[in-house]
Amino acid sequence: MGLIKPLRGSLLVVNFKTYLEATGKRAIDLAKSAEKAARDSGVSVIVAPQFTDIKPVSENVDITVFSQHLDPVKPGAYTGRILAEAVKSAGAEGSLLNHSERRIGTVEINSCVERCEEADLYSLVCADTAQAGVEIARVKPNIIAVEPPDLIGTGISVSKARPELITDSLQRIRSVNSTVKVLCGAGITTSEDVSKAIQLGTEGVLVASSVVKSKNPDIVLSDMANAIVNAK
Predict the structure, then answer these.
(1) Is 85 a catalytic residue?
(2) Which of 59, 99, 108, 114 does the annotation list as catalytic?
(3) Which of 47, 133, 187, 224 gives 151 a disulfide partner, CB atoms 3.0 to 4.6 angstroms apart?
(4) How confident is the model over 121-174, as pLDDT tens digits?
């Protein structure tokens, strides 16, 4: 098993969280909207559905699917834990890690990134500060998303409210790991927010409610993907 969809260019990552609007059949519908935005724009769009939806989503779309979490365990007696190999088998090609709503410790981050590597999965690790981003960068995940927790779900984008956090994080992270992709998240709501993030030097954005809770996610996804293209 290998990484079959290289993560080229800027990324638009959509976290479905546990919203009903992205559960079951609705998860497939939303993933199809993401697939259309990817196809029309040429941007790499990644979706992160709930665990129970990974398999049906991955079977219905031709874009990269991530899990929302996994545990730092190897195959064995770990009831209730989420195994990297199981995530891979279900059709995911990577996993979010250390999201502010599913925070894990430094040791766990290291182990989870290692487990992703062993299972041929991409790792996207969230960082709430520039210093956290530096520490995570040393572990060599594939992607880091800088997300101040207090702005998540507020509609106030980090790219506008705290542009200095992004630029500082980028500089410091790339000083220790020049190859990791750096995204930003938290409050990214509009295409303008996305454009600003790209202009500040990020390689994409991590979004959630602005897409999932939208009355017309097709339009929101299309606008965000096109903003990435036009901001380059």
Answers:
(1) no
(2) 99
(3) 187
(4) 999 999 999 999 999 999 999 999 998 777 666 666 777 777 888 888 999 999
Count of Cβ atoms closer than 10 Å to residue 145 Cβ: 28
Among 117, 147, 164, 192, the one annotated catalytic: 147
Identify the bridge partners of residue 12 per DSSP, sorted by sequence position. 45, 205
